[in-house]
Amino acid sequence: MPQHERVHGHELKKEQIVNNCFGCGPGNQAGLRLEFVLDKQRERFVCHFQLEERFVGPPGHAHGGIIATILDEAMGKVNKLREVIALTGRMEVDYLLPVPLSTPLMVEGWEVRVNGREHIHAAKICSGDGEVLAESIGKFIEIDPHRMFAKHLKKTHSDAT
């Protein structure tokens, strides 16, 4: 049986960043609030979810932007395997079949390769019976979050005290 571990927001120097991310942030009431677990045996981040009607695109199915967001989130989680913060530089999405609303779905992300600061990841969304509905590949660029987000991190830190 695979080992699973709940994945929370990024941690920087033992300080938790407030997670208001649209994809996975528990603090974002308008977001998707996706909850990923790490399948340690397969080194994949997995999330089981259902999309609410408010994410409609075509009748009864998810908007393409929401599908891309979910795939991006799954690929982004993979950076945790190497304990890096990396932002999406580019991603491609193949929309294979319409993604239904109000139905059990699963997304998983995994590492393809790493070349210096470039991290290439892939992800797929599957129906409850395992049919692949959408898939993606993305390039993530490793960053120094303290340098890139300094003014936001200072605000978050001062708000906490």
Per-chain topology:
Elements: E1 4-6, E2 11-12, E3 15-16, E4 37-39, E5 44-49, H1 64-77, E6 86-95, E7 105-115, E8 118-127, E9 132-142, H2 145-148, H3 150-160
Antiparallel strand pairs: 1-4, 2-3, 4-5, 5-7, 6-9, 7-8, 8-9
Q: Which second-level CATH architecture applies?
A: Roll
Beta strand %:
35-45%
| Major sheet | 7 strands, antiparallel
Structural class assignment: alpha+beta
Q: What series of H and E elements makes up the topology?
A: EEEEEHEEEEHH
Largest sheet strand order? 1-4-5-7-8-9-6
Average pLDDT reading = 85
> Which overall shape is indicated by the principal axes computed on the Cα atoms?
globular
C-alpha Rg (nearest Å): 16 Å
What's the domain count?
Answer: 1
Gap from first CA to last CA: 42 Å
CATH superfamily: Hotdog Thioesterase
Q: Report helical residue fraction.
A: 10-25%
Low-confidence stretches: 156-161
* CATH top level assignment: Alpha Beta
What count of helical segments does DSSP give? 3
The CATH topology comes to Thiol Ester Dehydrase, Chain A
